[in-house]
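Hey,

Quick one before I head out. I ran the complex with 4-fluoro-L-phenylalanine overnight. Inputs first:
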Amino acid sequence: SVARQAPAPKRVGFTSGFGVLAATLGSAVGLGNIWKFPYLTGANGGAGFLLVYLLATLLVGLPVMIVEIALGREARANPISALQALAPRRQPWWLIGAAGMLAAFLILSFYSEVVAWVFAYVLKAMRGSILSSDPHVTEAAFSALIGDPLQSLLWQWGVLVFIGSILLMGVTRGIEALSKKLMPLLFLLLLLLCAVSLSLDRVVDGLAFLFKPDFSKMSAAVVLTAVGLAFFKLSVGMGTMLTYGSYFRDDQNIPVTTFCVMSADLCVSMLAGIAIFPAVFTFGFAPAAGPALVFITIPAVFSRIPMGQWLMVVFFVLAAVAATGAMLSMMEVPVVILHERFGLSRTSAILLTIVLLVFSGAACALSNSTLASFKLFGLNLFDLFDFVSSNIILPAGGIFIAVFVGWVWGRDKFRLALSNHGQLHNEKLVDVVFFLLRYVSPLLILIVMLKGLNLF
Ligand code: PFF
């Protein structure tokens, strides 16, 4: 069936094993760790949520990440063409790729707005106006920013122009190289924040919240949110990892690479959590403050550090760098599909994607001001885009990818892909991952989705 496809355009892949790891890690690590993970953990009761999220990452996120990359590398094409090429004739598995493209637009719409806040905070930090441990001060600064339609829009356009320029200038590799050098710095800065947070008065409350499970807050909706976060974090369920897999080298060890990415990604999230929760309790913030949590708490922690103002500037710059790697990987899904499938030049594909994002992004940028009263299912557009993508499209994509590999593509092809078409070093691993994909992951996600969405 591969023969039905038009000959693949010449594709440039990653050149070194370490480059592959760095780019994949660059997609996973982003505002998901620094912004979404702490805010969802805070809003959903702490340690119990964390535990479910960890389980979801291992039982569902990791196996789906492994197969997405394997499928991409086998087909060496965009998600739609890849699934058309790998599936038996006329079976519409390519729809996973189409849904992924929709997810990319939804996520980029709100993600670019959060990056917009990060950009704005770099400037605010330089001015020194938000360096305070008084919740009223930091909360007022944040509300003023998100409640101002013009500022929200302009910063978002800045982010979109920035990301579009990187893609148009074809310097994504350069950015990856740069972020490879800067990420250790973000790690160090998070360590410093943790050290400060661990010296605060109510450190015990903060750590108990994060690590001592209290299942009274647990509900089907909370479990679905944790599963959604596991997908969002690892950039899976929408074809991003499939696309990156299509750039993987033939000799790259896929399970080892994914395991490293997952572990490093979890470390960054944990550091962010340890940096934030002791401060939340010490300074009297609400753990359930929602998307504002990081933006109101982080300035309070920095206010306790000598030179905190400038370190905070560095922190938000590094957060923007981390977010850039994630955004570039998301952009790649629609851009490569529009380019390879719909015959647009890469330049037109990039421009079209950015223009569409200006419109769909505005819906999120204005959701706390002009459009604040516009709600669907009780959610404003920012939260709705997040909910639909993270809690519906990504998990559903995960189900279909797992079912496709477990029941259609089959064990032999999966085994061949994981062995790099050569000798397999770990037969057990293939068995375990394949078993998860065939029986465990799809059922687990399905039950969680049906319960979480209150469908049965
Ligand atoms: N994993 C990224 C983060 O946690 O910030 C977000 C993300 C990137 C989600 C790419 C989905 C995606 F395809």
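The pocket of 4-fluoro-L-phenylalanine is lined by residues 27-28, 30-33, 107, 232-233, 235, 238, 240, 326, 329-330 (CB under 6 Å).

Talk tomorrow,
K.
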